[in-house]
Amino acid sequence: MSSAVVFRRLLILPPAIRRHAYSTAVASRPEVYDVVCVGGGPVGLSFVSALQSHNTTRHLKIALVDSQDLSISKSGNDGETYSNRCSSLTPAALRYLKSIGAWNKIESERLQPYHAMDVWDGVSGSKIHFEDQPGTGLVDSLLELVPGNRFQASRTRYETGSTVVATMCENSNLTGALLQRIKELKSEAGSLKVLDKTKVSSIDLGQTPTDETSPDFSQWPLLTTSAGQTLAARLLVGADGANSPVRQFADIPSPGWDYNQHGVVATLNLDRDFSSSELRTAYQRFLPTGPVALLPLPGKKASLVWSTTPQHAAALKSLDSAGFTAAVNAAFRLMPVDINFMLSSSSTSTPESELAWREPATPPSSTGLPASFPRIIGVQEGSQASFPLRLRHASTYTGHRVALIGDAAHSIHPLAGQGLNLGLADAEALAKQMVYGVEHGMDIGSCWCLDGYGSERWGKNNAMLGVVDKLGKLYSAGSGPVVWGRSLGLGLVDRLGVVKSALVGAAAGRG
């Protein structure tokens, strides 16, 4: 019902009642948006940025809803402290972030590219060294993305036969860059409304109109916020995490399972820095209880992601700084049986003393420890945290006027570092589908428009989830023929350059 119709129908009422009734009638109508995106993390922010950055979709009326305070801020840390929430961004993710104008807002001095990966079996010591090969054009693309000349050394490495595999970035750094870009786009286009510090109270379908003059929202999602606002969405996008209210509203199943593992994260201090001529390397050791990874950050810093049993995770979180440091060193340097004893309730000695007498009796050749592996000398105060690990995959990414991206659509084990990269790829694909829909006169909330997004992303994500899941299960065996078979396979792959290059290409998002 238009405001003019409401006004005419109220003319017969007394003035005081008329004013109250008119304001109530107008206020009760939902505010109509082309796109309502729930979730202000990197995935949701990048999706909104992509829409606002393209000439075809920048005129769309968009609302971004998030319960957090999305005031513009950067990482919030000084040069000596780093967040424990970091992601390994592939070159494909970086190219997308550049295309939407967000990458030049990043704090480049807090980024750390790495150029190789050392992966080894915690039981047999078999290992493989991944290093991307020149000739792919990867480094030239990356150098264009990075503001300033900080990574000029990368060109030297490229010319000598080594390229960047991925780039470590704090999630807060990426979020800050995306927020800056959104603020810039908002001032240019003026069609974006950011509703931060706002919770979603409910999502329902609209009501059938009571008369012919009222708009029909009976097939539209109506989102009610904690501030009492009602938003009608031509397209409702769920970028709202693993427990997505948008997915629950759409009644989309998300089957999967828990891994009975927790991911322990922390920011670590190393015993040395790396010179500009040295390769920065990511390290990962597969233990029967789960993989442990050391990922490089600038200077003498590194990010830890240790997937282990809930019992071990609880033991690690109970340790003081010295004990935690010793336990992490042990995870890379000792045999699994020694690590298990160190973290068990039956151990009466400290991790420091256990490491001190067990490490000299455990030669690096027996564990597969790479010669370049640094020593951990401390942990950044307050950086230890843990979270349960699970696999979930929505049966579909789209419904009528609904689309899911990021963790709302899928949850993956962190052993391959692909969680955020898959989410950013979702956001890029959905935004491209919106551009296609607008250019071809489609209703952007209809299945005719959205099916292309689901077709592009569901199969690719399902394949990645399956590979990562099977890899984790393969390395959970601590003895028997499975250990012999996987060690043989790892050795063969290490000697087949073509296969290694294909694997690195897939990890870098080129497959």
From TrEMBL:
InterPro entries per UniProt: FAD-bd (IPR002938), FAD/NAD-bd_sf (IPR036188), Ubi_Hdrlase_CS (IPR018168), UbiH/COQ6 (IPR010971), UbiH/COQ6_monooxygenase (IPR051205), UbQ_mOase_COQ6 (IPR000689)
Pathway note: Cofactor biosynthesis; ubiquinone biosynthesis
Enzyme category, top tier: oxidoreductase
Molecular function, one GO term: FAD binding
Subcellular location: Mitochondrion inner membrane
Record NCBIfam families: Ubi-OHases
Full protein name: Ubiquinone biosynthesis monooxygenase COQ6, mitochondrial
UniProt organism field: Meristemomyces frigidus
GN (gene name): COQ6
